[in-house]
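Re: Re: token formats

Sure, here are both.
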Amino acid sequence: MLQVEEIEAFYGNIKALKGVNLEVPPGAIVSILGVNGAGKTTLLKTIAGSVRPRTGRITFLGQDITRLKPHQIVKQGISLVPEGRAILAKMTVLENLEMGAYHRTDKEVKGDIEREMERFPWLKERLGQPGGSLSGGEQQMLAISRALLAKPKLILLDEPSLGLAPLVVADIFRTIKRINRAGTTVLLVEQNVKQAMKISHFAYVLETGRIILQGESKELMEEPKIKEAFLGQRA
């Protein structure tokens, strides 16, 4: 579905991604792991079009999307839920949801919003509230719903559990699994390695802008580097 080939990206003179290769097959949950500063968020932003790669190629469903702008990539079928959620704080919950469907011209938007309210029943009670008045967990769910209203084939999730209470985190991961089972492919950046590896099929480990490990999640969980760096277990 998604192929990232030899991507290099810079912030000024700093090379953030150094020849990254990655593949996301249709129907999968793929995790990207790494410490802060490894390049995980940069990679998602590059796929989503908000960071322009200097070299390399990104293809999605056989189409080259390397030089497309973010709104064009959304139309191709890729949605990003950014780190920090980026909820429009002064706009209502309903307006935030409608923003997720801004590029759509079909007549199914209202029905899709209703389906999101079935997914998260509390949304219906808060449609008129400002997005900034929601709790952190509610904002994360709203951000996911907003992204789904673009009707993506692939959703990019950047640290969806960041700063949330354990019970909310568990609910977030259950939601990701349900979204995937409903047919949306997932590319997940997450520092909660145990949870990410538990729900994902494949994983990549980024270190200072390079992929240093990759493979099926179950197998990578047994890698000494994973155990020591992320799980606090010495080989």
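Second one below.
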Amino acid sequence: MLSRLLRRWSPDVLRPIIRLLLPTRITPNQCTLAGLALAILAGVFIVIGLLPLAGLVLLLSGFLDGLDGELARQSQSDSAFGAFLDSIVDHYGDAAVYLGIAWQALYSGDQATVLLTMVAMFGSVMGSQIRSRAGMLGLDTKDVGFFTRAERVIVLTVGLLTGFLMPAIALLAVANNFSALQRLGYVASNVTKGRHPRS
């Protein structure tokens, strides 16, 4: 839901930053990989217990994730590979953060948080898998589901900055899987009614 609003507002908000970046010849893919590096760093900070710092680094990673697409559009360098790389990097970044949380929870003996983290990660992966398989049927589920990556980054960032990481993970465990089920329901409804291009 928030991602859809950001896609509408981001061109105006990011335009001044893009203008500064264009002469530097920084590529969208470089921004994408920088965002991944920051997400991994956030996971490391979580493991060693620097949660507020991890939250700030994760927020910056999310910002770069939004910047790369807009940079590609305004520099007219968007490509199928760039979109593919962005999608894959998002999952690696999410996994780094989730694994950092699980590791820290294991170390502290918090088994409930470990379980919820695995459930949240599963929901995130399944939402992406459903979108990918739906695309093979000619169905676009990008705008289906009320919880997107933008919401996930914000919830995790707030949880890390405030110390309320357990409630944040619990929320993600529910919301990620509910959003995945929303996509599944959308695909099932359209396929059973023959409303997909490859029926």
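Helices lie at 2-21, 28-47, 51-74, 80-108, 111-136, 149-162, 165-192. The chain has seven helices and no strands.
- S.
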